[in-house]
Amino acid sequence: MAQGNVVVRFEEVTFGYRSENLILDEASFSVREDAKLTLMGQNGAGKSTLFKLITGEIAPDRGQIHLASGATIATAKQVMAREHLTQTVREYFSHAFEEVSYNLDKRIADVLGTVNLSAPLDKAVGTFSGGQQARLLLAYALIQEPDILLLDEPTNNLDRDGINYLTAFLIMYPKTVLVISHDADFLNSFTEGVLHLDVYTGKVEKYDGNYTDVVEEIAARVERDRAKNAQLLKTIQDRKDKVNFFANKGGKMRKLASKLRDEVAEAEDNMVDVKRDDRTIPPFTIPAQHLSEAAVRIQGVKVIHDHEAKHAKVNLTLRRGNHLLITGPNGIGKSTLLRSLAEGTNPDATITEGVKVGYYRQDFSGLNMEETAYASLAGMMDEPDNEEIRRTGARFLLDGEALATPVGALSEGQKGLLCFARFVLQAPGLLIFDEPTNHINFRHLPVIAKALNDFEGCLIMVSHADDFVKEIQITDTLDLATLTIDT
Prior knowledge:
By secondary structure, this protein is of the alpha/beta class.
């Protein structure tokens, strides 16, 4: 671990959006300069909230947060703010500085080169793909050259080249980095320790080692604590049985019973609080609408070359049981194609009338952020069934409190699980997925992959998570980078 001066220190910090549900409960930890740490925790633990506390966007209820004098902070956020979507690239980056420097264009060009993105400075931010916007968000933080760099799921929407460029930069970055991510390979390549935020206790513990080492260490600790408690419970029950027997006897037997009671009390005092590890969603099935004919026909697509849309002919007919993977680098038009299919705006694609479409947007913009999670699930049923809604929500770790929460207030991971719960209730004939692994805890991914592989309807997917895709039987692949452009 780096041995520089402390740049961030939390001193018995308590914070909660509701007093009965604390995110941090007298949490204390410190981060030294030049350290590169992963912030780890269960879905909904409050990892992004901890970033907001560091930046001062929100203040603790109790306790103190100390930053090194003069330390600068920049955050690469998960999603582009809506107010930036209509701005040009130049206008967007100008907000990174209190005073716009004379060489802003050169600085933008340099930082875009760092994230491997070619972007005209007068182009609107909202016209870039999700992967390109992810690079803009990262570049916006990097251009500030902060002493403390906060990265919130920086690999979401990035293709393999983008992740490689980011990894190389972070390895060489000479300052402090805190990163939230579920990408184990990415984290193992540059982080040297973990801050674990426990959703159940509101405490933060620091571990040395890479992400995988810490996950294994926590799992081993859980098993040790469970084994210790099991042995103590066995001892406690044995002593209690003997107490009940000897207490009714006279003389020395009664004294023995008193001694055994003391042993019971000591054993109970020695019981340890077992760290509750991340819960994993149980196996689930997405019911499929019965389809008697083809679900979708695609005869043409738009492909982006040098920031211009070009037309390419294709010939795809997808039926029940077909799994189509759409591939290509960031910015070539994958998300645009999915959106045009789902919204019916592609003149060269037809979804058969009556087919129910389930659409997973990488930014969750298809969800109504104002309604509760319960209402979001109820809206997927022709006749809402309270028992079924709550049972389905619970299977995706959405308890009564989460279901009563507005969708916009859920964590990104919870929004992702909400989408899958919606599909279970919807029973679609066609599922369209745009980066379904974004924001999802890695423990859930094998379960989700199996559910998609077993889906008996039609599936169209974009994903840069190679290990996830390998778990799904792909019947068709459309590589936008290899299509012949119409002349």
